[in-house]
Amino acid sequence: MNNIQRLQVKKYISDLLTIHDAEAVFITALPDIRWASGFSGSNGLLLVKPDAVHFITDGRYREQAQDEVKGATIHVPGYALMANLAESGLLEDVTSVAFQADQVTVAELESWKPHFPNVTWQPVENMLTRQVASKSADEIQRIRAAQAITDAVFEHLLGFIQPGQREVEVAAEIVYQHLQRGAARMSFDPIVAGGAHGALPHKRPTDRVLRQGDMVVLDFGCVLHGYASDMTRTIALGEPGEQARAVYSVVLAAQERAIDAVQAGLSTQALDGMARDAITAAGYGDYFNHGLGHGIGLQTHEWPRISYHVDDELPEGAVVTIEPGIYLPEQFGVRIEDMVVVRANGCENLTASPKSLIVL
């Protein structure tokens, strides 16, 4: 995030102070702290007051915070951040603090109160959700770079995967190839699901041996410079049969229909319905048993959620997945997933891997 964006964040949080009649805003969710300040460590707090922004961390991150944190005064008091924050006096003149209600447990909130007996804690849900969802050009470039690694790994897999391998062997290769290409880590544990395992949308790799004729669901992504990629492709090991080809065509058509419809302001529920209606019309509506997609960025799953259960508007600049699937119990599954950037009058697809059915 650049300095202009951080100034916008500060203004937004300042507006929260007025809306919630609070004297300070407390940000504790690490992804939001990174988004607002640049800090990528594992222990930190961000305190925003009308006249100043304070970042608090422990001694492990003294140099890292000096290097990463922008737009805030840095405090490195010790490991017990809340106790040290109380001793610092930064909240001495504050009686009302807005905090991220959906990011703080009841136990955490109760543990704060003894340190600040004069503070009233004002719970705010979705405090930065919409702001984080609309990505800057720099953030989109980071996601694009992460996806480029994932696309390259998929291309490698097409020359690697074959009958006789175990699902866990392929998963290990996926991880290794991402790290070899510079990824910091995987954005989630890879899914490698052959045959009937593919009918379980989140089936983890097992010792099952891939067989000739299997449809194989491959779902994986990585993290690069803090931002995640996420892609699913379904391939066939040898001729999969007429039914599998037909199901694949239905899923691909549904996905392309949804991608063609993506634009800022569109209802997430309506977008889900475009893919779901196409699958239902083909007779497979009972076998598409999850939402169409989700936002992605510093976290693999962010707002907005694209689902028949949720009716939000797609914000311009959001990066979302479009991933319909059909899962036939005890037979096979097909899922195809791309990441797209929501634009004012359409979208930009960040996923370059081919989507026509690949038969190896």
Structural notes for this entry:
- The structure is a single chain.
- The protein contains ten helices and 19 strands.
- It has 360 residues and is α+β, with helices and mostly antiparallel strands.
- The protein has two domains: 3-129, Creatine Amidinohydrolase, Chain A, domain 1, CATH 3.40.350; 134-349, Creatinase/methionine aminopeptidase superfamily (Creatine Amidinohydrolase, Alpha-Beta Complex), CATH 3.90.230.10.
- It has a six-stranded mixed sheet. The protein has a three-stranded antiparallel sheet with strand order 7-10-11.
- Helix 9 (242-261) packs antiparallel against helix 10 (268-281).
- The mean pLDDT is 94.
In short:
By secondary structure, this protein is α+β, with helices and mostly antiparallel strands. The protein has helices spanning 3-19, 30-37, 62-68, 81-88, 106-112, 129-133, 137-158, 167-180, 242-261, 268-281, and strands spanning 24-27, 44-49, 52-57, 73-75, 96-100, 120-124, 185-186, 191-194, 215-220, 222-224, 227-228, 231-236, 293-295, 302-306, 319-322, 325-328, 332-335, 338-343, 346-349.
List the helices and strands and how they pair.
Elements (H helix, E strand, L loop, with lengths): L2 H17 L4 E4 L2 H8 L6 E6 L2 E6 L4 H7 L4 E3 L5 H8 L7 E5 L5 H7 L7 E5 L4 H5 L3 H22 L8 H14 L4 E2 L4 E4 L20 E6 L1 E3 L2 E2 L2 E6 L5 H20 L6 H14 L11 E3 L6 E5 L12 E4 L2 E4 L3 E4 L2 E6 L2 E4 L11
Parallel strand pairs: 1-5, 3-4, 5-6
Antiparallel strand pairs: 1-2, 2-3, 7-10, 8-9, 9-12, 10-11, 13-14, 15-18, 16-17, 18-19
Helix pairs in contact: 7-8, 9-10
